[in-house]
Amino acid sequence: MNFRCSRSELVLASASPRRRALLESLIQGFGIEPADIDEAVRADEPPARYVARMSNEKAAAVAIRHPQSMILASDTAVIVDERILGKPCHAAEAAEMLRLLSGRRHQVFSAVTLRSSAAQSNTRLSITTVEFAVLPASWIGDYVASGEPMDKAGAYAVQGAAAAWIRRIEGSYSGVVGLPLFETAELLREAGLVDPAGEPSISESGRQTVANTYSKLRTAPDER
Predict the structure, then answer these.
(1) Helices 181-190 and 17-24, packing angle to 10 deg
(2) How confident is the model at residue 8 (pLDDT cuts 50, 70, 90)?
(3) Which of 27, 141, 162, 202 lies at a 20 to 30 A Cα distance from 185?
(4) Which of 103, 223, 215, 203 is nearest to 152 (CA)?
């Protein structure tokens, strides 16, 4: 499924090259406008509510600048011990997060929101379980020193060097990357941006787009 829209019709509320690559596997020709919002977690806020709120707030923020467009926004969070892990502020925090994830299962919550020009929003949620092998202390040190964890929720990139230590993924791989494609495709079909009779799988050209982008942008900043 790979369709084209005008840049004024759909805007992706993210500067993340990975989200852009994933969305390009479904649809071409959209605009890009990063959202600038406060991403602080509220007291006692459940993970599902947090990512849904972030996704909706990103869409609303960009809609102010593009009132005639549909806005697609997404937010992703890593959850372990009922704790929401965002992007690490410094190397020591990144190492602490990786030690928390080492040898354990954690969950990745990804919400995606499509907001219409009439200010109506529809949100879908993807929850994925990821299991890490035991991470050697030397590897954690080297990985943190590489800089890759510093702009990633949970301090790792599933499509980067950390993939070698992921024992199992149960759920949406694309959701862990940052944009759950099944849920995104549902929203696009319901909005009429893609043919509802179209195949729900990614086209071969779409797969190549994602693969090429990942190979070039493994360490690119993931500005969400």
Answers:
(1) 60
(2) low
(3) 162
(4) 223
Domains and CATH numbers, the chain: 3-217 (3.90.950.10)
Catalytic residue among 36, 38, 75, 142: 75
Q: Nearest 5°: CA angle at 108, between 107 and 112?
A: 145
pLDDT, one tens digit per residue, over 139-153 is: 999 999 999 999 899
Q: Does the global pTM surpass 0.70?
A: yes
38 is catalytic: no
